TrEMBL record:
Database matches in Pfam families: Fer2, NAD_binding_1
Protein name: Oxidoreductase
Annotated 2Fe-2S ferredoxin-type domain residues: 234-319
InterPro entries per the UniProt record, alphabetical: 2Fe-2S_ferredoxin-like_sf (IPR036010), 2Fe-2S_ferredoxin-type (IPR001041), 2Fe2S_fd_BS (IPR006058), Beta-grasp_dom_sf (IPR012675), FAD-bd_FR_type (IPR017927), FNR_nucleotide-bd (IPR039261), MRET (IPR050415), OxRdtase_FAD/NAD-bd (IPR001433)
Every FAD-binding FR-type domain range: 1-101
Xref: PANTHER family: CARNITINE MONOOXYGENASE REDUCTASE SUBUNIT (PTHR47354:SF1), NADH OXIDOREDUCTASE HCR (PTHR47354)
UniProt keyword list: 2Fe-2S, Flavoprotein, Iron, Iron-sulfur, Metal-binding, Oxidoreductase
PROSITE patterns (alphabetical): 2FE2S_FER_1, 2FE2S_FER_2, FAD_FR
Taxonomy, superkingdom: Bacteria
Amino acid sequence: MSLTVTVTNRQLVAEDVCAFDLVNADGNPLPSFIAGSHIDVHPPGGPVREYSICNDPNETHRYSIGVLKDPASRGGSIAMHELREGTTLTISLPRNHFQLSKDAHHSVLVAGGIGITPLLSMAESLYTTGESFELHYCARSSSKLAFMERLKGSRFVSNVILHVDDGDATQRFNATSVFSAANNPATHVYVCGPGGFIDYVLGAARAAGYRDELLHREYFAAAIEDTDEEDRAFQIRIASSGEVLSVGADETALSVLAKHGVDIPTSCEQGVCGTCLTRVLDGTPLHRDMFLTDEERAANDRFTPCCSRSHSPVLVLDL
């Protein structure tokens, strides 16, 4: 199901970062969402992209999103930055792969750059329910800190700690210190931002003794896979029909399935969101996603056909 929305506000909230307010084009309230949710946005002339909803989940009159203009953009962020107030867009219903845990006694939110967007809605939700939390917001410089006016005027401003790389050394983000101070069995960590930043934060948390079930992350784009393994051809067998399809070295499993009438829900097509996650009944996937955890990858019972491939000659899919 999709929604038609209108851009009612467009604002530059940091260097190369625009915020947009989207309201239902028919004037009705928008479907509710929970903290950490995202929507697919179809900008005119640009590819479909996912953006986190960053406003208070108690609001029903708008979805607010923030978009970084990426110099390496393949068209998505550039198309978004060209939007003007009054433009009508098609979006998906909110989905969530990055939910707050109900078991946390304390939450450590860590944002890198534009990764602040889902954590803003999380901070709003945690404050509303009276939960203990801290929000660490990291950027290369103060000009890159988005939504500062909103943060400074927020109800949870006392929970926010800012860190900029070009500032005084005492305020720079030190993950080891943060996690050593916060570590207890009921503390959960939520991190969003560039892939390298996420890996650094999660590595420091694990070194401080955090178990994987306490660590939550959301990537905005898949990392470029540094591998010597070539994209070899392989086959996929559809379990329900026995049909065998060949996936060429220059094709994705998702595109081959689509050509043969097998419809799998998709969104990012980069292995980030998990929308196309498909159960594997036999064979060994070559995982190239950023969605599954190491443990989930090791199970080899699911894969993302948008980007992942196969170690084995044949993958049997539960389709």
